[in-house]
Amino acid sequence: METQDQLRELFRMQAALNLRIGVDTSSMDDAEKTRWILNYCRAMTQEIAELTDSVPWKWWAKYQKFDEQNARVEVVDLFHFLISAAQVLGMSADDLFSAYVKKNEVNLRRQDSGYTAKDHGDSAHI
C-alpha cells in the first residue's frame, strides 16, 4: 500500500473545507488577501490563547491541570488556519515544505554562528 503525502493531503482537505465554508483562497485580489490573512491571524491568535489555557500557566491558581487532549486539538486548529493563510498567499504544500527547509537551514546557520546580530537579508531567498 502506498503512503499518501500527508502535507499535500492536509492542503487538499483545507482547500475543500474553505470552499465549503465559502472561502476560495485561489482567486483573491490583494484586498481580499489582506482581509483573509488578518482573519486567519486573528483566528490563530485565539487558538494560541486556547492552547495556552490548556496548560496551567497561572502560578497562583492551584486548581489548574494540564489538558493534553485539548492542547492537541488546539494545535490542530492552528494548522487549519495556518494552511489557509499559506493558501491565501498562493503557497502549495510543496512551496511550504521548500520554504521550511530553506528557513531551517537559515536557523541552523544562525545557531552555528552564535546569532549575535540580526541579518535582515539572510531569509530573502526563501
Quick recap of the structure?
The chain is mostly helical.
Q: Given the C-alpha coordinates, what overall shape results? A: globular
Percent helix: 55-70%
Largest sheet: none
- Mean pLDDT over all positions: 94
Task: Examine the coordinates and then state which fold CATH places here, giving the name of the CATH topology of the domain at 6-92.
Answer: Helix Hairpins
What does this structure look like?
The chain has 126 residues and is mainly alpha-helical. It has a domain of 87 residues: Helix Hairpins. Helix content is 64%, strand content 0%. It contains 4 helices and no strands. The longest helix is centred in the first third of the chain and has 23 residues. The radius of gyration is 18 Å and the shape is globular.
What are its keywords?
mainly alpha, single chain, 4 helices, 0% strand, Helix Hairpins, 64% helix, 126 residues
Mind sketching the topology for me?
Elements: H1 6-21, H2 30-52, H3 68-88, H4 93-113
Helix pairs in contact: 1-3, 2-3
